[in-house]
Write the structure tokens for this entry.
Amino acid sequence: MAHSHHHHHDHSHDHHHSGNIFVRIAQAFHLPGFTHDHSHHDLAADRAFLDNRLAVRTVWIALIALGLTTALQIVIYIASGSVALLADTVHNLGDALNSIPLLFAFYIARRAANKRYTYGYGRLEDIAGVFIVISIGFSAAYIIYESVQRLLKPLPLENLEWIALASLVGFVGNELVALMQIRVGRRIGSDAMIADGQHALIDGLTSLAVLIAVIGSLIGLPILDPIVGVVIGIAIIGITWNAIKAVWYRMMDAVNPHLVEHVEAHARAVAGVEDVLTLRLRWVGHRMYGVMKVAVPADTTLEASAEIVRAVQHEARRVIPQLEELTVQVNAARE
């Protein structure tokens, strides 16, 4: 028996905002994931549509913010010649470009499912994650190459105060984008957006590392500039590896085992359910689909079975707010 009920939505959004300065700035600008606006009437609206709209708005803001940050850093790099700043600028440019396939995926995901794409177009979000991984890997290789070249042929830095400013701008811009993307990604269940946000989080720290190059020039150690560039490149390789794992899990329909155990525990707690025989969950973009078989007593009536199905689906959605559909099959135990 399979019953699809889309009227229950777990509205337990995270309203506990830490008091750090970046969260306060994000709240001041009403960035996605940092507002308390509940005027969209969740019970009457389609959650998938709301999540998609939130995702699109988030990616657009990230694209604009990183684009402006990168443009400012390019101007300062041309004036200063800092390879550490170049490394950070290239990385920020890559981050901004990463938003494009993600934005494309979220727009296409709005299309309705059809007879060929019976699960819709949500999987395109995971494919966008592949492009993000490739972009991150390319930026790491380019940064390390440029830094090694500068190690072999060191050059003095100019306009140190502007390099310091670019470093701080890159730090603040990336941290705001990162907090926003990670928060929204977790809310809607988008691994691709979370990966992009974690990437930006590390980028903020690498932007701050450019200050080390400025200090090096001030104390007569210009070699610190390309060394910082190499360190940034190595850090990005680590980010690339984590992103590869996240994309691999999504492409292989992997889910967190603890999530499966949590759903099973809630289902077993439903009155009339003797055991959960099987449970299969899969992500399609940032929506989850599942199939569950539960064992019930042999004398369970058809009406009682239907009620058990509804209760199990209700409990599953409490655990997974991003659950689009759960098909529940009721197996009556033999006498």
User: Anything to note?
Assistant: Residues 1-18, 25-31, 34-45 have pLDDT under 50 and may be disordered. Strands lie at 275-284, 287-296, 323-332.
